[in-house]
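pls read this protein:
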Amino acid sequence: MNKLLTILGTKRLFDCRSITTRIAADGKDVSKNKQYENRITLIGSDNSVSITDLKNAQNLSTRRDLKLVKIQDADSKTRRPVYKLMTNAQYHDEELSRRKEKKAASDSNTLKGQKLMTISSKIADHDILTGCKKMGKLLEKQYEVKVVISGDESEHPKLERIYTIIEKNLKTVGKVVQLRTKGNNMRFQIVPIKDKTDQSKVEATSGQNNNNDNNKGPL
């Protein structure tokens, strides 16, 4: 009887093992665990949500002539990446939205720092314009430019003229703040223009000043 039970037990063990394993050519057991592709969360063009794998999602997008766009690397709850099927119109709107967000983030960036430019009242007009180009590049890179124009007390009209040339040439990329005269020096800062509203205000102010300053120097 014991011998019969042993034989039956061995048979059950073999039957059980045959379900979960297979025998390789060398006689070793090889696991038959099914390999699943990584699952994703798929949002349809109608905002329906389903769970599938990436290959099926790609096939679906091809059949329906839709764009398959990855919108999230991994959801915090499911740990699955999130993809969305979009029509051409939806994809175009999404791209415009991303560009607006990127521009808004860029406009909200703080200044990278301050650069000092010292100018003598004896500077030539050509050198003033060269200096304006340098200041313009700094403003475009989000730097604040601090300008000091130095000269004798009798040269105050020259300081005003140099200031006017700088202000006119940089009005599209920067605006002048904290203009002040101290001793023989004229000092002011130029900060980058971050939006069209600020630029319009600067241009309006400059337009009013132009009526009185037409003969003060080159643009």
In short: The chain has two domains: 39-106, 113-213.
